[in-house]
Design goal:
Structural class: alpha/beta
Number of domains: 2
Shape: globular
Strand content: 15-25%
Helix content: 25-40%
Order of helices and strands: EHEHHHHEHEEEHEEHHEEEHEEHHEHEEH
Number of strands: 16
CATH class of the largest domain: Alpha Beta
Largest sheet: 8 strands, mixed
Bound molecules: aspartic acid
CATH superfamily of the largest domain: Acetylglutamate kinase-like
CATH topology of the largest domain: Carbamate kinase
Amino acid sequence: MKTTVAKFGGTSLSDAEQFRKVKAIILSDPSRRIIVASAPGKRSDEDRKVTDLLLDTWDCFEKGKDWQIPLNRVQTRFEEICRGLDMNPDLSEEFEEIRERLNTKPEKDYLISRGEYLNSRILAGFLGFTFVDPEWCVFFDENGQLNTDLSQRMMKAALLPLENAVIAGFYGSDASGRIHTLTRGGSDVTGSLAAAAVNADLYENWTDVSGLLAADPRIVDHPKTVRYVTYRELRTLSYMGASVLHTDAVLPVSDLDIPINIRNTDLPEEEGTTIIRSLPDGEIKYPIIGLAGKKGMSVIQIEKLMASDGAGFTAVVLDILKSMRLPFEHCLTGIDTVTLVIRSDLLNPCRQELLNHIREELSPDYLGVSDHLSMIAVIGEKGSNSSYANIRALNSLTDAGIPVSTINQGAGKLNLLIGVPEEKYEDAIRCIYRTIEIVR
Ligand code: ASP
């Protein structure tokens, strides 16, 4: 029998109506046996996520303010959900325990994990599935890093014997047995771990969009939904700022070749985006699948005549960055030049120190910094169409009079990175998007 691990995000479980949709989705496919749940998300733009309310509670607690106010709002959210589902679990006891813990043994991660804990228990009751607490099967090491091997072994032991289960996302326990949370959006990672642990046929990630869009909808009107995307393409998109899945959610399932299907709880009939290692037979491979980008970049240009004739010029630059623990986004090398693209917010506090180091150690003929750059990634495992697609993308910018300050492709051809002035970022995305439509 097939097994699908289905993770439902916060908006999919934000109120009783959404719970009903989720139940209908789960019951419509018997393979959906392992369910991973987030805390209730926003019901409208003005609303607050339960996790944010719990963070408010912690904030008030630390500052000596009245933390009962945000905590009461959390309690009301859960009571409304239960009432809407005609369920009456004893939530007052649960909240008494939370209050008691804040008074006697306050722990931030414990507090903010309660959104997932309670939502998953309610969902398990509503579905008639077994509740699995990740406190007993998701583990972090003494440095707070996820212990993937141990978590997968323990999850396997917890989940495999069960016919069906709801496991709470976002948390587990640390080396000393205390509750520890993942970073925000971490239920995606719990879902991925669960899918890997039971060697699922499919990992479904149910959210409020019908998959991955080929560009930011705030910039491009109605961008296309991408039907298939490879793990590598997704990683590049996420790195460049497209927020689809938590970046750590890909590795556990990609290692086992388990596809991830991003689906929309409000439009379950839509097939969404499937993330896979390579395209299924017969599917058309588009040279460009999407665009993503980041603003707020600075460019450092270093030039020294004859530097390329010797060895180690670039290595010295990289050593300086390493010694200053300053990460760079991109490093481009040319004849006698090295260009670094660095996030301005990271560069600003140590800009002068970095320039001094470079001057002292390399005595460059030219050293210049420019700010307000944006980087755009034109992404796609382009195959043989690579050059055509990339040239079209660059031409579209030239035709629109948008200056290109850096170009970086590399032999892998997975992504073409283009640097354009920040004020031209949106125009550039729109120009290249039109090109995508042409080369598709
Ligand atoms: N509830 C947590 C958050 O809002 C984790 C999650 O939803 O995945 O970030």
